């Protein structure tokens, strides 16, 4: 029933643009990450290698301070990492959440996928597994992350991300008013790109094999132990080489409740072009959280791609990167939020 309705809805829509393979697409203007993944595909590497290399580039470069070490300290001042990688051919997934002391989170996620029977490892145990796999333990704290944490403490912004907590009325930061006065607009502003974000990446080779991946250091000043959407399969990313792939970015606490990446892929399987699939996935969340901060990228296995975002104050246009055989170089793309 669901499939027939969607097919009817999208039967008249033609794919946008000229499809071109291979393809790399990722969230935000992280050009070096796109280029790293593209070089892998151009040299004959696998889509898994491409996604891992691209996300790892952002981890090394600490893209926008929201990926990799030295960013988004939690309430205790510690930086922890989340990552996911998915094989669209086999439907295998590896993911880590709350990873401590290991900089290469996407690499550990791939090790979980290829060297265990599990899907997701978390916290200290994930770090021990990584060290057993040969990953080097390092301090993820930097002077920048220490300064972020110190300024937060000095601003008396505690407690953070709590409901029904009565703060000092003169406080100017943190979403911790009593529930009766907490406005969605303030949460949208707090859970903005300034406080967190993610690289989400999709790669498709010339034969339509697909992989997806994510990497992030989570939300700034999060409650220790908080896990967002990035390492959750179907939420942060999803890939199926028989249909397509998608990756999400934004307020993970909201977005993960709707599995937007999985939904977008299923919509493409049912006949929707990638842009329409992205828009519908965003619209599903918007029905319940009209001012949530978020966006999604989508691509099908023929090389068509698209993106969509939810319009909020200060976030009216979403930028993402694309590289395919038509461009042969990373190109900055954008889409108006709705």
Automatic annotation (TrEMBL):
GO MF term set: N4-(beta-N-acetylglucosaminyl)-L-asparaginase activity; peptidase activity
GO CC terms of this entry: lysosome
Keywords: Autocatalytic cleavage, Hydrolase, Protease, Signal
Segment forming the signal sequence: 1-19
Record's catalysed reaction(s): N(4)-(beta-N-acetyl-D-glucosaminyl)-L-asparagine + H2O = N-acetyl-beta-D-glucosaminylamine + L-aspartate + H(+)
Family label: Belongs to the Ntn-hydrolase family.
EC annotation from Swiss-Prot or TrEMBL: 3.5.1.26
Annotated function: Cleaves the GlcNAc-Asn bond which joins oligosaccharides to the peptide of asparagine-linked glycoproteins.
Protein name per Swiss-Prot or TrEMBL: N(4)-(Beta-N-acetylglucosaminyl)-L-asparaginase
Record-annotated site: Cleavage: 197-198
Organism, as annotated: Scophthalmus maximus (Turbot)
